[in-house]
Amino acid sequence: MSAAVPPSRGAVLTGIALMTGGIFLFSLNDAMGKWLVATYSVGQVLLLRSFAALVVLLVLLRGEGLGGFRRAPRPGLQVARVVLSTLEVACFYWAVAYMPLADVMTYYLAGPLYVAGLAALLLKERIDRVQMLCVGAGFVGVLVALDPSTATLTGPALVALAGSFSFALLMVTTRLLRGTGDTVLVTGQTLGALLLGLVLAPFAWVAPTGVDFLLLSLLGIVAMGAHMCVNRALKLAPASAVVPFQYTLIVWAVVLGYLVFSDVPTGRVVAGAAIIVAAGLALLWHERRAARA
Q1: How far apart are CA 87 and CA 166, in angstroms?
Q2: In this structure, are residues 78 and 177 in contact, taking their beta carbons and an 8 Å threshold?
Q3: Who contacts 225 (Cβ-Cβ below 8 Å, separation ≥6)?
Q4: Which of 207, 208, 281, 283 has the maximal Cβ count within 10 Å?
């Protein structure tokens, strides 16, 4: 067996740049979504963003054909993944319509920590003491940010938590379907959101202005660009080198939330986000160390 060739320094730096750029695009997409759901319903946002993304995907599928869909493994799990992805994005837009961007993103940052716990239950993966401590610390961070009480345990906060848990389940199912092509996975997610948008949009339709129609269309395209940057980063460089830069998401959420919406995160949200990020980085460091051993 030949030893794997380590990536070059240039490839690692390119991967870091792509990951950072992809996370910025995700943050920009989230800020645009929050701006638009103040005027348009979640169903209308899902419909128009998904339609624009599907147009781009159809162009990509012209070269690849439908073979990837026919060869996609485990059809039942593919459908479950589409349902989870649709629920996750709908919860995000609904929550962000009522909560500051940084608050919602703090709950979603705990998604990778949920995955570590769910992998032990659903994938029968072994979880050691350090991993359990990291997952537990992540839950503590969520509780600190949420500050559960009759005043703070609101409907939008619970929706955000449900969305973050759906996001974690989505990542677990994606791990189970890692033999499926990227285009097939993204197309399934887009079609699921499009169908939900078709059902919900007519109940609260608002005729969009020209600028807003452009922004609604850009939502799906920007998200696709972000996915491409992140996927390419993970192919160029080791996950341990680029994944920590995903946590710049909370920085952009705070900055864009303040500049665009004048949102100032509370001390509990900052403290909760710090605990979640620290737990996530500790988990990543532990897994990297275990892999080397």
Answers
A1: 7
A2: yes
A3: 22, 25
A4: 283
